[in-house]
Amino acid sequence: MTSLELSTYLNLSVYTIYGLVHKRSLPFIKKGRRLYFEKKEIDKWLMQGRQMTKEDLNLKVDEYLMRNPR
């Protein structure tokens, strides 16, 4: 997808997209002078910022305690 398509997909301005690319915070492909983005990689990048719910945290704690009894 192009920068314009990505800005629509993420509901961000194109300038914000370029800023994230400049900081190398956003996964991108550069072919010549053009930037491209893979939807799969963008979705993966978005999921990295996902916050765990209390239920998720409780499950992790339970798993940890089961593996590491005192």
TrEMBL record:
Residue stretches making up the Helix-turn-helix domain: 5-49
SUPFAM superfamilies: Putative DNA-binding domain (SSF46955)
GO MF annotation terms: DNA binding
Domain of life according to the entry: Bacteria
Protein name: Helix-turn-helix domain-containing protein
Organism name: Maribacter luteus
Source lineage: Bacteria, Pseudomonadati, Bacteroidota, Flavobacteriia, Flavobacteriales
